Amino acid sequence: MSLRPVRVDLHLHTVLSPCGDLEMGAPEVVSKALQEGIEVLAVTDHNSCLNYPALSGAAEGTGLTVIPGMEVQTIEDVHVVTLFPDYERAMECQDWVWETLPDVPNREDLFGYQVVIDKENGVLDMVPRLLVQGTERTVDQLIEKVHRLEGLAILAHVDRPSFSYLAVLGFIPDELEADAVEISARATEDQAMAIMGKYPSRTFLKSSDSHRLSEMDAARCSVMALEEPSFEEVKMALLRIGGRKVMAEWR
Amino acid sequence: MKISELVETLGLEVKASGNLDDEISGVVVGDLLSFIMAKGQPGWAWITIQSHVNVAAVAVLRDMPLIVVASGRPVDDDLVSRCSQEGVTLAYSPMSAYVLSGKMYALGLTEAS
């Protein structure tokens, strides 16, 4: 097999995230991803991976690869996109995250709905605990946990003024073992270049961080050189192994 | 006002000791390190509830000799050892950033940004 360009979006919210639009249902997200030529899609709701089965179920037979993950908020108020080789390990991480997620009930009138769905958008559950809050795990503890589960840890939207490693913690230390750094699709060319110039040895990527269908867009994600659309191949691309790589860094 | 006087007067617990004779001339309060990197001034104290190890580097970068971790937030061991290495005084208080600010202002530390 040889390497080929594969469109990858590693940051997306569904109806499980209270801030996610209610149009972010399983068949809708899958169909929009296919329409945009996206072949690998990670489902990364806030502090939860419970809608992975719905998305992977809806994607069955379509050729779209869905990766389980979540966007974890650490004690420092930093967002980290975490991705896992399978749902079992994603759930193990979610359980660990939830051990210190404050038991504050979601107020749907303030934050929105937190809906767990099946592959046809049937409502399975409404998560009662508010998902958009910080856990008591540090960034370093989270990265260590994710790596023990053979997952990937990506610093989310570092160009943003809130919940980003750069805004909250100022700079990225060389020894931080994050697998990649995400620059949001909202960043300007200048912002992206300035950040990338400061950390030349890091792997950068662009992800959509979609909360609604209109934000899912071929131009708002990354193209990677992979042999096939799979978690293992994405991992090799972020770690730059065997020729796999992020082709257009950020854009 | 010397760091040692602030420690004494406010009952701060010193976790890592720099030069306690250093003079403090102003105070900045905040938990976003990017903000402190822009606003912190040489010779100032910094009150924060952020206790990530990067806090030490930001204090060094802005030449701030005193960090006060407020509200009894857990202090990261890495931060303590980094402050010791860098000669930055790291102090700790159960008082909130608001109360500490008020007390420091009342002590005459009115310079701020």
Short description:
The complex is a heterodimer of chains A (251) and B (113). Chain A has 251 residues and is α/β, with parallel strands linked by helices.
Task: Compile the SSE list and pairings.
The complex is a heterodimer of chains A (251) and B (113).
Chain A: E1 4-9, H1 26-35, E2 40-46, H2 52-59, E3 65-73, E4 79-83, H3 87-98, E5 115-117, E6 123-126, H4 139-148, E7 152-155, H5 165-169, E8 180-184, H6 189-198, E9 204-207, E10 222-226, H7 231-239, E11 245-246
Parallel strand pairs in A: 1-2, 2-3, 7-8, 8-9
Antiparallel strand pairs in A: 1-10, 3-4, 4-7, 5-6, 10-11
Helix pairs in contact in A: 1-2
Chain B: H1 3-10, E1 13-16, E2 26-29, H2 33-39, E3 44-48, H3 54-61, E4 66-69, H4 77-86, E5 89-92, H5 97-106
Parallel strand pairs in B: 2-3, 3-4, 4-5
Antiparallel strand pairs in B: 1-5
Helix pairs in contact in B: 3-4
Largest beta sheet of chain A: what is the strand line-up? 9-8-7-4-3-2-1-10-11
What is the overall number of helices of chain B? 5
Strand percentage of chain B lies at 15-25%
**Largest sheet descriptor of chain B:** 5 strands, mixed
The count of strands of chain B amounts to: 5
The N- and C-terminal alpha carbons of chain A lie at a distance of 26 Å
Structural class of chain B: alpha/beta
Distance between the termini of chain B: 18 Å
What is the helix content of chain B?
Answer: 25-40%
Low-pLDDT segments, ≥5 res of chain B: none
Rg calculated over all Cα atoms of chain B: 12 Å
Task: Give the CATH topology of chain B.
Answer: Udp-n-acetylmuramoylalanyl-d-glutamate--2,6- Diaminopimelate Ligase, Chain: A, domain 1
Largest sheet of chain A: 9 strands, mixed
User: What is the total number of structural domains of chain B?
Assistant: 1
Give the low-confidence spans of chain A: none
Per CATH, which architecture of chain B?
3-Layer(aba) Sandwich
**CATH superfamily caption of chain A:** Metal-dependent hydrolases
Mean of pLDDT of chain A: 96
